[in-house]
TrEMBL record:
<feature type="disulfide bond">
    <location>
        <begin position="193"/>
        <end position="202"/>
    </location>
</feature>
<dbReference type="Pfam" id="PF07974">
    <property type="entry name" value="EGF_2"/>
</dbReference>
<dbReference type="InterPro" id="IPR000742">
    <property type="entry name" value="EGF"/>
</dbReference>
<keyword id="KW-1015">Disulfide bond</keyword>
<dbReference type="InterPro" id="IPR013111">
    <property type="entry name" value="EGF_extracell"/>
</dbReference>
<keyword id="KW-0245">EGF-like domain</keyword>
<dbReference type="InterPro" id="IPR011042">
    <property type="entry name" value="6-blade_b-propeller_TolB-like"/>
</dbReference>
<feature type="domain" description="EGF-like">
    <location>
        <begin position="170"/>
        <end position="203"/>
    </location>
</feature>
<protein>
    <submittedName>
        <fullName>Predicted protein</fullName>
    </submittedName>
</protein>
Length: 237
């Protein structure tokens, strides 16, 4: 049985997976819905007391954290959290392979200096705690500075969200309904369809080798509603 120590910030995915900060164990944890098992996403259990221990750019489970508190998950699966004792905002990449600093300067004693409109790497937090992500804006409770602060992502046209993912016909690439659920959004308004579908939205398919948008599909007596699936008109079979 896992031993937790002051579990804190919590995020539940649409699939029921639970991410949270195990604050005084200095770890980021995951409870996987399908198995009910708990695992460590980031943190080696050693409290980071110097900047060199943070090991950014390396494996998340090899990095030292310092009392992580707030946590949220971006649209592509990037895990963002406040490493409160180090006064950092940090993130684990969506593939889970690297950990990096999003914003902040290392300090274990607090800065008490809030520099708005500063570069992300120059921002000074003092015990950053809760996080809330809405669209392209990340809100941060900068607890001991007594502020709510904001980081906004600036995406090019056709891209959106905090991690600037492409949008296909008003649907974000990370949305399961993108490209009619039959492909991937690989660039702005560019769907890459699976082998059984075609069309700008991947909305068309084939029945017995005939395109679903052809007048000859289903022997002209029905509709091709899914790959190789005809729904016949009344009186036809």
């Amino acid at each position: 049985m896992a031993k937790l120590n002051l579990p804190n910030g919590l995020f539940v995915t649409d699939g029921g997976d639970i991410y949270f900060t195990d604050t005084l164990n200095h770890k980021i944890r995951l409870v996987t819905a399908s198995t009910g098992k708990i695992s460590t996403i980031a943190g080696n259990g050693v409290r980071a007391t110097t900047e060199s221990l943070s090991k950014d750019g390396g494996l998340p489970t090899s990095a030292s954290l310092n009392t992580p508190k707030g946590l949220t998950v971006a649209e592509d699966g990037t895990i963002i959290f406040t490493d409160s004792g180090s006064n950092y905002i940090r993130y684990v990449s969506s593939d889970g392979k690297t950990i990096n600093i999003l914003s902040g300067k290392f300090s274990t004693i607090g800065m008490h200096i809030a520099q708005d409109q500063s570069e992300l790497s120059d921002a000074k937090f003092d015990d950053p705690a809760g996080l809330f992500l809405s669209g392209n804006e990340l809100l941060i409770a900068d607890a001991k500075n007594g502020l709510i602060r904001s980081i906004k992502a600036t995406c090019p046209t056709g891209y959106g969200g905090f991690t600037c993912k492409p949008i296909c016909y008003d649907i974000m690439a990370t949305n399961t309904s993108v490209c009619s659920r039959n492909g991937k959004c690989i660039d702005y308004n560019t769907c890459k369809c699976d082998s059984n579908h075609f069309g700008a939205y991947c909305e068309n398919t084939y029945c017995s080798g005939v395109a679903s948008n052809s007048s000859n599909v289903c022997s002209r007596h029905g509709r091709c509603v899914e790959y190789n699936t005809c729904v016949c008109a009344p009186g036809s079979s």
